[in-house]
Specification:
about 475 residues, alpha+beta, D-Maltodextrin-Binding Protein, domain 2, Dipeptide-binding Protein, domain 1, Dipeptide-binding Protein, domain 3, 3 domains, 15 helices, 19 strands, about 30% helix, about 25% strand, globular, SBP_5_CS, signal, SBP_5
Amino acid sequence: MKISMLGAALATMVISGAAQADDPRLSVAMLQPPRSGLSPLSDDAFKLSRWSTAETLIRLDAGGTPQPLLATAWQRLDDSTWRFDIRKGVKFHDGTGLTPERVAASLNAAINAVPKPRILDGVEMAVEFDDEAVIVRTGADDPLVPNRLSSPQMAIFAKRAYGDNGVVVPTNAGTGPFVLTEINGVTSAHLDRFEDYWGQRAKLAGIDADYVGDGTARGAALRTGTAQIVEAVPVSQAALIDTDLIHEVPMPRTNTLYVNTAKGPLTDPGLRSAVRQAVDRGTILRTVYEGRADEARGLLGPALPWADGLRSPVSYPAASSPDGTRITLGTFTDRAELPEVAVLVSQALTEAGFVVEQDVREYAHIEADMLAGTFDLFILSRATVLDSGDPVSYMVSDFSCEGSFNISQLCDPAVDAALETAARTEPGQARQQAIITAESAIMATGAAIPILHERVIQGEAAGVADAMRDPRERMLITEHTTFAP
């Protein structure tokens, strides 16, 4: 087990006595090491966001609604033009000031990056500036521009961060309450409180983060007090830890049984209903996930708290008798729980009267057949909210006629019309209702049978206060995080 900085930080707390009690540091065991040297233009941006060292123009609230951060206000000037007023009095960690010009340069660096940040896939965007604001122009009508600018990959950095050949180094260059002072490769990172933060002064003196890929080691770090916060405690370890230290956070990820609607026996809506009735969600939840997941009532789970309250019952066709119908069921081994789910689904379908052939491979070896519609059924763990905090892009990708990830081979005019309406609707309650209307249209086709919604288990030592338990995994430690007296 390799937790050197965590142990050193804990020792410092003990040796320093009262001074450290007043200004404590916090030790964190992170799930994965950086993939790209903590470049904010990669998925490493989410670490910078979780440490509150990098900030974006916009942040999302629990419902996914944009809120001010480095932008104080914004206005949609026309279908393709937005104006964002930039907060005054903000300093970067190197002491330089935040300006509209600097914001535009950061955003344009992301727009022109190769590869482009995932949030900008398929999006044409350009940014200009004046004395007070930045002007964002898109190539098409896009009501999700504020949501896109909330992505950690669109964080704003000082000029010093940007080097040659697109390299971005985030040390001493963000605007958050903690300044990233050390990057120790794939081993650890060190952050200190930023005394000139524009918002509330951080309660912690700093953060010491170790990357601990082994789940058993992360569980041990929490049990022994070596780490005060631990990402992604494995289910097998959770049972060994004091329940008061374990916090289950719903994830925007749904385990779904995709049903081939274009070819094979399940083009019959009645047989699709028979499949849906046969799936025993409760058994899967109890046995494979040991109760640490949520039974699905729709495509969108409790990580989107507004979804369930907007739903109405879905009307399905009457089920047909399987009567020995032969079907193929596929999944992959990369997620250890999915083959176990496939076994239980296969058993349930067999008992219902189907004859089931399973095909389980590594994802790299099965993806092409999955997307080509080779299988009658396919089990997939799918993220339902991508970087924008909005599920429409996932629904379009998976269930529209032109969807690039359309495992179900679905092409339904009613579904496409509902998705188009949702995509055009401004963020807010009206968009949420349009999304649930689209979900209902998808569910009614029988193209997808959601099984359960996953959770992530976050460990917090006794006394840790105000750590964030964020389903989107954007926030973890903030200026409010501390140790209770």
